[in-house]
Write a structure and sequence with these properties.
alpha+beta, 11 helices, 38% helix
Length: 262
C-alpha cells in the first residue's frame, strides 16, 4: 500500500506533546522528515503557482511559469547584489520574494514549522503542521551517519536544499519540494493526495485555544520573530511581541520551596 494512504492526524496541546510525537517518527526507513506549518487546518499542499486561476490567463501552466520567471529575471536586476547562478537559484529567489512558483516551502526543523503554524494565534482557525517523510532508497540501517542519510536525498530527490541566498533560509532551515506542472490547464492535485509516489504524511493539528501558549513556549526556547525573520523587521516584530503579548507564569513548587529557603 502506498504510504500516502496511511495519513495520520494527531492533536497536540504543547511543545512537549509535539516533540514527543515528532521524536517517535520512523527514522530507519525514512531518509528525511520535513515540516510545513500553516495557520489553517484546511490548507492543502498546493504550490502558489497552482493557486492561480489558469483559465483566466488564457494560457497553460508551462507558458505561464516561463513568462513570470522571465519577467522576474529581467526586472529584478536593479535590486540584486549578485545574480542567480542557475535556474534553480532563480526560482528559489523568486519563491523567497513571493512570486508564484511550483515550489513548496518546508523546513527540516520541526520547531520552526510549529512557529509558523502558531504565529498568527489570534486567527479564528485551528492550525496544522504537515510532516512529510521521504524514504531511504538504500541505507535502511539500524545505525548510520547523518551524511549517509543526506546523500540519499541529494541523488535525484525532489527535495531541494537551496543555496543560502538569504539569512532567512539559513535561520529557517529552509528547503523545498519541486512539483511537476500539470498538462495544459489541468488542475494540480494536492501533494498529500497524489498516489503515484513514495513517502509518509503525518498531520499535526493545533486547536486555536492552545496556539498562544505554544507560541510563548517556543519563545522561551529561543524561537521567536527575531530568529525566524533575521533583520530589522524581525527585531521589530519580536519587540512588539514582548510588549503586547501576555503569557502564563507557571510556578514550580519544588523550586519555589528552594527559593523561599534563601
Amino acid at each position: 500500500m502506498d504510504g500516502r494512504k496511511l495519513k495520520i492526524m494527531v492533536e497536540i496541546k504543547s511543545v512537549t506533546d509535539y516533540l514527543e510525537h515528532v521524536q517517535a517518527f520512523e527514522q530507519q526507513h525514512i531518509a528525511q522528515w520535513i515540516f510545513r506549518g500553516v495557520g489553517n487546518v484546511d490548507y492543502k499542499l498546493v504550490p502558489s503557482l497552482f493557486r492561480i486561476d489558469i483559465q483566466s490567463t488564457l494560457t497553460n501552466w508551462d507558458d505561464l511559469e516561463k513568462y513570470m520567471l522571465q519577467l522576474f529575471k529581467r526586472e529584478a536586476r536593479p535590486f540584486l547584489d549578485t545574480l542567480p547562478q542557475d535556474e534553480l537559484e532563480l526560482v528559489t529567489l523568486a519563491q523567497h520574494h513571493g512570486l508564484p512558483t511550483r515550489l513548496l516551502d518546508w523546513t527540516t526543523n520541526p520547531l520552526i514549522a510549529l512557529f509558523f503554524a502558531n504565529e498568527c494565534y489570534d486567527n479564528e482557525t485551528d492550525s496544522v503542521v504537515w510532516c512529510y517523510g521521504f524514504p531511504s532508497t538504500h541505507n535502511c540501517h539500524f545505525e548510520s551517519t547523518r551524511i549517509d542519510r543526506r546523500l540519499t536525498l541529494e541523488k535525484g530527490s525532489f527535495i531541494i536544499f537551496p543555496n543560502h541566498i538569504s539569512p532567512r533560509i539559513t535561520n529557517q532551515a529552509g528547503c523545498f519540494t519541486e512539483h511537476m506542472l500539470p498538462k495544459e490547464q489541468e488542475p494540480f492535485t494536492p501533494f498529500e493526495n497524489q498516489m503515484d509516489g513514495l513517502g509518509l504524511f503525518d498531520k499535526i493539528v493545533i486547536k486555536k485555544q492552545y496556539q498562544k501558549d505554544i507560541l510563548n513556549q517556543l519563545y522561551d526556547l529561543g524561537y521567536h520573530h527575531g530568529l525566524i525573520y533575521p533583520g530589522l523587521d524581525g527585531l521589530s516584530k519580536r519587540i512588539k511581541y514582548e510588549a503586547s503579548t501576555t503569557h502564563k507564569r507557571s510556578s514550580n513548587p519544588e523550586q519555589l520551596k528552594r527559593y523561599k529557603k534563601k
